[in-house]
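Hi everyone,

Forwarding the result from last night's run.
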Amino acid sequence: MRVPESERVAAHLREAILSGAIAPGERIRQEELAERLGASRLPVREALRMLAAEGLTEHHPRRGARVPRLAGHEVDVIYQMRERLEPLALTESIPHLTAGDHRRLGLIQDKIEANTDIGEFLALDREFHLLTYSGCGIEQLSSMVVRMWNATQHYRRVFMRLTGPSRRWVVNAEHRLLLDAIERRDAVDAERYLSGHIRRTRVELSQHPEVFGDGGKRG
C-alpha cells in the first residue's frame, strides 16, 4: 500500500527533529521542504499539522512553522508532569504486556548496555519506555506521554553529551529494576522505580542550566 504523501513528509520531519538535525527554535520553510522532498505544499502543510499535534512543531502566524524552544522552567514542569503521568500509564499498561513484550524489553535493554553512541542510546531508551506503556488503552494518556517525550528529547540529548557515559550505569540499574517489576506485574514497585528514574533526570538536568538558552530561568 502506498504511503500518503503527508505521512511520508511527516516521517521525514519527525526523524529530523527527534535526531536533532532540526534544532529547537529552527524554522521549517514549507517551500524549501516541499522542493527537497519532491512534494506539493498541501501534504507539507498537513504533515506540519500532524507534527504540531505530537508537540514537535508549532505555528506562528507571521513566522511560520518551527520546532518549539522551551525555557528551563518549562522543561522542569514537563518532567514533573512525566513523574505523575507516566507511572499511571505504566500501571494501566502492565496487565496487558505479554511475555513476548517482556522478552523484547530485555533485548532492548541488552542493546542499551552494549551501546556507546548517544544518538543510538536515546533511540533505544525511547523505544524501551514507550514499549512499557504500549499496553495502556487510554489514548488520551498515551498521546500525552508521547507529546512530553517529544518536547524534552532535545534537552535530554544535550544533557547526555554534557554528562558523558559516566552516569549510564545508573540508567541501566534503574531500567533493570523497572523491568523486573514489570515482569512480576508489580505495579507498586514499577511506579516507584519509574517516578524515581524520571525525577533523577529532572534534578540532574536542573544542575546544568547551560542546556537551556535562557540559562534555565522561568519562561
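The beta strands are 27-28, 58-60, 64-66.

Cheers,
N.
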